[in-house]
Amino acid sequence: MQKLNYRSHSLVPYLLLSPTFIVLLLFLYWPSINSVFLSLFKQAPFGRKRIFVGIQNYINLFQDPAYLNSLLRSTLFIIFTITIGLVFSLLLAVILNQNLKGIKFYRVIFFIPYAISPTVAGSLWVFLLNPVAGQVNYLLDLAFNIQVNWLTNSFFAFLAIIIATVWKNMGFNIIFFLAGLQAIPDSVYESAKIDGAGAITIFKDITIPLLSPTTFYLIIMNIIFSVFESFGIVDIMTQGGPADSTNIVIYKLYREMFINFRPGIAAAQSVILLALVIIVTIFHFKYGANNVHYQ
Amino acid sequence: MKKTVLLVLVSLCFIVSFSAAAEEVTIDFWHAMGGHNLEVVNTLVEEFNSSQDQVEVKAQYTGSYNDTLTKTQSAVQTGTAPHIIQIYEIGTQMMLDSGIIMPIEDLGKEVAGDNSFDWDKFLVPVSNYYTMDGKLNSMPFNSSTPILYYDRDAFEEAGLDPNRPPQTFAELKEYARKLTIKNDDGTVERYGFTLGIVGWFVEQMVANQDATLVNNDNGRSARATASNLNEEAAVRFVKLWKEMVDEGIMLNPGRGWDGANQAFSSGRAAMLIESTSSVAGFTENAEAAGFELGTGFLPRPAAANRGGVIIGGASLWTIADHPEEELKATWEFLKWLSEEEQQVYWFENTGYFPVTKAAVEREMNNKFFAENPNYLTAFLQLLLSKKAVSTQGALIGTFPEVRQIVEESVEKTLEGNMTPQAAMDEAAERVNKSLKEYNQLNE
């Protein structure tokens, strides 16, 4: 009797895990496996005809200058958004970490961009950057007498989506930096001050190292954000243009699937993207983790 | 006893209402008409539903043309496709190859056995576009073409004759130069001309020179296998585009329609090329802004043959995989839409062309064209177009992709990375590759 009870209990963890597992299986593993399978075919629109092509889709992709260019663009995009985004967020988080009257109100203000949808964010920036009626050009004109063609020039369009993405994700980064900052005990700062450390030294040698677990986490999250979630902003602001300058991999993939109707090559792109994100994350865990200091 | 009678009565009521409901056939109609046009579609559908009690049409807005096509693809694969879908003109070849459609002429003649329907009632340029293998494949619905819009007051100011819009490429450039106002500090106050980067305009400019976009008679006599984008007609236009932007007499508002529309409406540009479906909007706007709107035909190079414009917009396709009874009901609705009354309503409320001769005649008799000369420009340009494969429009299986390729090439040219010829050579090569792959899959 006792034994039977024990046995039936051993099923309980699996039973409790099963909802999560079913959801993962249906919505994560199954589609992923399916895209690997799809990437080995060429398929006509409406799925009327399907030809097995093996790894030909992958070969074509890596021989396609437009795809290689897109990979390069995406890499630059990720590096810039993460560097600029994290530096700005950290500075703002330090400022917001003070004990001022109404500071909670300011914190909320900074978090708002993260809470609005990418479509709204994109549209806002399109208005702001409008060459004729936009506020940004109006101010630039007043201050320096220059007018920038934000979204019709390759360089500025690329800059524009970086600015918009940084702005959009800043709220998320600030919240985590704030939490990290508040977790650093005052005693550490106090003893540093007693030892005669200046503000910059404290920031450089105490705050930054002690924040490294947060930074480490944020880098991974930001890679994922800028690879996958920048889609909405690109779609609204530039649609990959002008001349492919903002055609980052996730947007190219979308166009291949939903405008060119080529599920095979789109699936191959998503598999490559998945592999790249996994590789970067593993590398980051392996080498980045050495610089993380836990208290 | 009373109870029994009541029970019988009640159940009779149920049976009667139930069977009445069962008699009514429900038809799903997916369309891509958003904003103001959404209401116009809904009004038409409601009118149809209340005009009879056999068919109930359920209209659903499914996003952009592209979204509608995507949704149809997945619906077909899960067996939940609607009866009628609105597909943009560039999806025509894809629909023909899809294997899921029923040509509208087969639907009317064979399934519904309707012998009274006049298949010649449509405007020739419109039915030409959707006629393949000698039969009409989809029901023409919303049709439009591009025309030149200009600010008549600005013309007078610049010493130009407002009754003589530019007719050639050279004139377009010359006029734009005169219409451009530059400030002392070098910034441009008003550009002479603007044009959104939209592949459609390149297609139209090619047709206007009586040239084809792809080989095999624009893909009409056999599947297209090669693109003509790197030939004179297209290159000449892209070259003009670049020269005018470089000279600072034409505003490049970027990809899409909105930027150019804003620039023209706000007086930042004195001329623009846009769809005829915007006539009403621009007229209203010009009145509000206090200038008089003028319209003209698309300009073309002096040396080129006179071609014409291709009908743009979208048409209604029937999905074949439905019971016969529902297909018949589908036909009833489509037939009703093509009637004079509905066509006139559609035209006056959306600005899209009426697609039947009767509706045009009625509008003429009503002096509509005399009172709205800008609509007359649109019609005359369409009706004066040469009847040829060039203006019949290209059939390309991967047309949406081709449009994107063209837009990218124009951008590359305008940015100065490539000469017009080099950019269009690259575009042609990419289109050829895309055609080859498509043809392989659809033999």
TrEMBL record, chain A:
GO terms for biological process, alphabetical: transmembrane transport
Keyword Cytoplasm (UniProt): no
SUPFAM superfamilies for the chain: MetI-like
Gene3D superfamilies linked: MetI-like
Protein localization: Cell inner membrane; Cell membrane
Membrane disposition: Multi-pass membrane protein
Keywords for this protein: Cell inner membrane, Cell membrane, Membrane, Transmembrane, Transmembrane helix, Transport
Chain ranges of the ABC transmembrane type-1 domain: 67-284
Main location: membrane
InterPro entries, sorted: MetI-like (IPR000515), MetI-like_sf (IPR035906), UgpAE/MalFG_permease (IPR050809)
Subunit text: The complex is composed of two ATP-binding proteins (UgpC), two transmembrane proteins (UgpA and UgpE) and a solute-binding protein (UgpB).
Family, as annotated: Belongs to the binding-protein-dependent transport system permease family.
Protein's name in the database: sn-glycerol-3-phosphate transport system permease protein UgpA
Species of the source: Halanaerobium congolense
Lineage of origin: Bacteria, Bacillati, Bacillota, Clostridia, Halanaerobiales
Automatic annotation (TrEMBL), chain B:
Cellular component GO terms held in the UniProt record: cell envelope
InterPro entries given in the database record: Bact_solute-bd_prot1 (IPR050490), SBP (IPR006059)
Record has Transport as a keyword: yes
Keyword line: Signal, Transport
This protein's record includes keyword Nucleus: no
Locations listed in the record: Cell envelope
N-terminal signal peptide: 1-22
Family as reported in the entry's similarity comment: Belongs to the bacterial solute-binding protein 1 family.
Protein's recorded name: Carbohydrate ABC transporter substrate-binding protein (CUT1 family)
Source organism phylogeny: Bacteria, Bacillati, Bacillota, Clostridia, Halanaerobiales
